[in-house]
Amino acid sequence: MIDRNKIYAMLNHWFEAEINGYFGSEYGPDLNSLLLGPLDSPVANAFIAKMKNDIPVLNQLSADELSLYSVNEGFETKVIYLKVGDVASNLNQIRDSQMSQSLQGETYDVDAS
Asked: pTM for the complete prediction?
């Protein structure tokens, strides 16, 4: 039986995966298209459709149980949340943590001789 904890584990795995990170598969979130596009672009439905395509069990959830919404913070900041059941996840924070993880790695001195 798939319960709430398993769905959250699936979502965590999906958010940790790089888009197109699995050979021959488009599995993974494209947070850049969601967060870096124009604020008035209709990308929320496409994002949820991709999520449901990658994690088919989410097709069983209604629009009340799986949704995206945004909150304005200040003048220029819009925070996007993914609501699954009664838990809301800040997608901006997820993207920031992905970026910080991708920046941690080996560094090279381009001026080395």
From this structure: 0.77
